[in-house]
Amino acid sequence: MPADPANGRREITVSDVAAAAKVSKATAARALGDYGAVSEAVRDRVRAAAEQLGYHPNALAKTMNTGRSNSIGIVVGDIENPFFGQATRGAADVAKAAGFDLILLNSDEEAGAEENAISVLLAKRVDGFLVAPASTTVPASLHPAVESGRPLVLFDRVADGLDVDTVVADNLAGARRLTELLVEAGHRRIAFISTIGHEGDYRLGDRLGSSSVNDRVTGFTAVLGEAGVPNPEAFVRLNARRDGVDAIVRSLVDEGVTAILASDSLVAQAAFRTLRDLGVAIPRDVSLVAFDDADWTSLSDPAITVMSQPIHEIGAEAARLLVRRIAGDGAPTEHLVFPQVLIERESIAPPPG
Amino acid sequence: MPADPANGRREITVSDVAAAAKVSKATAARALGDYGAVSEAVRDRVRAAAEQLGYHPNALAKTMNTGRSNSIGIVVGDIENPFFGQATRGAADVAKAAGFDLILLNSDEEAGAEENAISVLLAKRVDGFLVAPASTTVPASLHPAVESGRPLVLFDRVADGLDVDTVVADNLAGARRLTELLVEAGHRRIAFISTIGHEGDYRLGDRLGSSSVNDRVTGFTAVLGEAGVPNPEAFVRLNARRDGVDAIVRSLVDEGVTAILASDSLVAQAAFRTLRDLGVAIPRDVSLVAFDDADWTSLSDPAITVMSQPIHEIGAEAARLLVRRIAGDGAPTEHLVFPQVLIERESIAPPPG
DNA sequence: TTGAAAGCGCTAACAC
DNA sequence: GTGTTAGCGCTTTCAA
């Protein structure tokens, strides 16, 4: 007695409806599934029988035949992170409008978990993938998705050497602008903090595991270099997840850094707390800027100057692109880049002294 | 040529692997699926062939036979809301550990969308449902889920007249405590604000559409009544989504209210902004307290006194319960209630004057 | 327009 | 331990 969970009842099938309506299974299926040709009379009769019996179509059986599941797999770093919450919502709305549902998996930014997620989605025969890749330099975990032939759209990050559609924000320009603001205010000792993992000290030209962080670091060090700051790479602090933002900020303050650029709002939040606990005044003692217009950044005292990204739209656009690919759009690979917008608030001041 | 998307290739099946390994389909399936009895030699041979051919199991076909899809449907109000982000993450982790994936749908707190979501999940033959019901007084949209015989666990809210498991926080006690704090500080004109929809003015005994908000209002008015405040129900402001928190707060200030209890952190955030824009000092002119320890509440100036809920744990526990039910646990319906914990900060002061 | 029959990829008896 | 044979619930030829 398969196809039924623990409880006793058997699901109503097309056969049951067909029998009740006194037509063949094929005809009942046509009437129920809205395809092929069915006379109006028969159609109504079948529908009535279905209603009467409480028929619920089995989408899985349909998928077995058509090869289409009407589901999209989405792999995010962590759905609890507001960034992914917003992107997922944007994607969900577009997907739903196009008749797709989302199967959601968290990767925790780990390649292993990501590969696992892809494999689960592959087994469930999703029609396409939406992923914020954990590693954009070694996107091996994405290969199975690519090889499956099902469309894959990357969002928030691009991946090296993978010919797939991507939807990201202009992190390079955003980082440049934020850094310029700090430099113009007179800062020279500016630190960049990110949670991204990286072996050893950061050196100019190193490729970071996330293309977006990579672009941010590149923009940051470039502007610093142009401003005549020697060894700008020495101001890049990575591995903040492992080492702790708190510890990093403390040592930065000791080292006399006068400004901090946080790579995301979670890092900024931790840095803000540490500075406050340390009694270091923002922006009088240390200036602080960040990416993402998280809600707290406009509520804190002082409010934080941020580079805002159209997160919702990035998710939505990625889904739109994916839906088009699923529909068979064979246009060349697209790489969409959304502009970021600066929101100036009160967290920048000239360096002290 | 079914079972394959737009592109040309055909998926590798158990039959292909069986042929390559020169065994029967059944044996290949046993080796691949890790069930039944297979000799080690054959098992290795089959696995090697599978690897070689690039075999990926079709979970859907498996579901057709076993009746188990290893997916759980989760219906939340809005995944962009931090509350649901956290609860979903809690649920996702437990689900994954038990071998289940999540199919995520947003209801926007509308019964229609919720019913739709349930029907989609039913068609996809999820093994169980996790839902934060849009309406707990008229849970009609949940009936199809209940009738399907597949387990359903409600979280954050209970539903009237539905014999299903629920996992919620103790909103009544939480609201009482928060209100007591305000009363003890000397407040008498205290307003309660929620986005929940309600026809006409709130009257004592009205059942609100969300059991959690209902409990909060009940606790709030009870404490006010015990403190001798006449007509406490007059201080309950609902429909804030429709009318706007901003407009409500402005009129409240005009009416000389000296304290506000926000039903959730999103309402609190909007209220905080309005008070700030109005130049009304918190807590000197108006005290403000809220539910949920959202990150901004400890970063704002002043930091907000809140009633914190174990959101992550609520999601996790709901998933744990559901997984047990799916496994066939026939124990009586459970109603889990988690305590809320008060976090005192600086947003309460005696009323002015 | 309708029906009969085959088949999607897998599991589950049952026999050997 | 292995193979044979039926299905799961649907769609899809192909005839009638």
TrEMBL record, chains A, B:
Which key words are in the record? DNA-binding, Repressor, Transcription, Transcription regulation
The segment(s) forming the HTH lacI-type domain are 12-66
InterPro entries this protein is in?
HTH_LacI, LacI/GalR-like_sensor, Lambda_DNA-bd_dom_sf, Peripla_BP_I
Q: List all membrane-crossing ranges.
A: none
Keyword Transcription on this protein?
yes
Select a single GO molecular function from the record's annotations and give it. Answer: transcription cis-regulatory region binding
The molecule here is called: LacI family transcriptional regulator
